[in-house]
Design goal:
Layout (H helix, E strand, L loop, with lengths): L1 H5 L12 H25 L12 E10 L8 H7 L8 E11 L13 E8 L14 E7 L9 H11 L4 H6 L3 H18 L11 E2 L4 E3 L3 E9 L15 H12 L5 E8 L6 E2 L2 E2 L2 H6 L12 E14 L2 H6 L17 H24 L4
Antiparallel strand pairs: 1-2, 1-11, 2-3, 3-4, 5-7, 6-7, 7-8, 8-11, 9-10
Helix pairs in contact: 2-4, 2-10, 4-6
């Protein structure tokens, strides 16, 4: 398995990528995501939920952009002060904590947990440049990388997950796609084995890169304060994570806080198995970690949950996050996975919203 996680499935240069075939891959990914979404609902005898991250809970929050000039040299300040991070300000936000699986499972089941949030740029803070800028969305998980490396691996794993017989589906995959699937499954299993902890005490990463101004590329991270309160999880409760977060919002006097940081892509310092790579390598390979010892995170903002502000379940289901569609020009997503996931997420959202509208009783 070391061969799979270290060497196979990672593209070393643009010459190894088939960009011309990517759009057809994305079209098929959309079909498979919609199929997986429908299958999950049918198998669990429930309405259509999100294609992934099906189970979650939403709350209101505050996103405070800090003064990035404090205690930093001029060169670092110049790099940090881009987009919404150029000027200190306070903005309202909506946050969703969830589980990554496409099914609504018990919280006791091993899984990757997510933190997604939307910052309302029209209220509070300072003016943000760009056409029709209304909000900035962020999507993070409690894993440093995605197990799915790129659009080709994305399609291969979706073919397996939507096959009526997984063994047969695996058999008919091309050999290289078999290896892509095995690598993805190994990495996913390793990530899902993390200790189950309350949502408000986990650290989250964007796992994929984003533009930061006209030149730089960054990843994001939300690090919990060590003072974030939480009660021990009830191991017999299938909704333990959700219930603990709601209890925290309703009962605790101290709201949970996350430091929001940026990690610059510095290809002159970063290495993969001891070797330097060009910027495209770090952008296109979503399953490759950016070592924090080589490229540290810099805190630029603070996300604070608001007490007694949980959204009603129906409002939470109507909430969505789109890191491409809701992004200012200085913060657009980059890389193969980001190019592939938006069409799939939009199609999944439209299917969910359409199903919900049809289920509403006539006035």
């Amino acid at each position: 398995m070391l061969f799979l996680t270290r060497w196979f499935g990672v593209t070393g240069s643009d010459a190894e990528r088939s960009l011309s075939a990517e759009q057809s891959d994305i079209d098929e990914i959309v079909e498979k995501v919609l199929l997986m979404q429908a299958n999950a609902a049918a198998q669990q005898h429930r309405p259509l939920c999100r294609g992934t991250h099906a189970k979650g809970v939403c709350t209101r929050a505050q996103f405070e952009v800090l003064d990035v000039t404090v205690g930093r040299d001029h060169a670092l300040v110049e790099r940090l002060a881009k987009g919404i991070f150029a000027t200190p300000g306070v903005y309202p936000a909506i946050v969703r904590f969830g589980n990554a699986d496409s099914k609504v499972n018990s919280d006791q089941k091993g899984d990757v947990r997510s933190l997604s949030f939307s910052v309302d740029l029209t209220r509070g803070g300072a003016a943000v440049s760009g056409p029709s800028v209304g909000r900035q969305d962020f999507s993070l998980q409690n894993a440093r990388t995605l197990p799915i490396n790129d659009s080709r691996a994305f399609l291969a794993i979706m073919k397996l997950l939507t096959a009526s017989n997984p063994a047969v589906g695996m058999w008919f995959l091309p050999f290289r796609d078999k290896l892509r699937v095995l690598r993805t499954l190994v990495l996913a299993q390793l990530q899902a084995r993390q200790t189950i902890k309350p949502y408000q005490q986990l650290r989250y990463w964007s796992t994929v890169p984003f533009r930061h101004g006209p030149i730089d590329v960054v990843k994001h991270s939300a690090t919990p304060s060590r003072y974030n309160p939480a009660h021990p999880l009830q191991r017999s409760n299938p909704n333990a994570l959700q219930d603990e977060l709601i209890r925290h919002l309703e009962e605790d006097s101290n709201a949970s806080v996350f430091d929001f940081g940026l990690q610059f892509l510095d290809d002159d310092r970063m290495t993969y198995w001891g070797k330097k790579r060009d910027a495209h390598f770090w952008i296109e390979n979503a399953s490759v970690e950016w070592n924090e010892a080589q490229a540290p995170f810099h805190t630029v903002a603070r996300l604070t949950l608001l007490s007694k502000s949980q959204l009603r379940p129906d409002a939470g289901e109507a909430t969505y996050f789109d890191v491409t569609g809701n992004s200012i020009p200085d913060s657009t997503p980059l890389g193969s996975i980001n190019r592939a996931r938006r069409p799939a997420e939009v199609a999944s959202r439209k299917a969910r919203m359409h199903a919900a509208s049809r289920a509403e009783p006539d006035a």
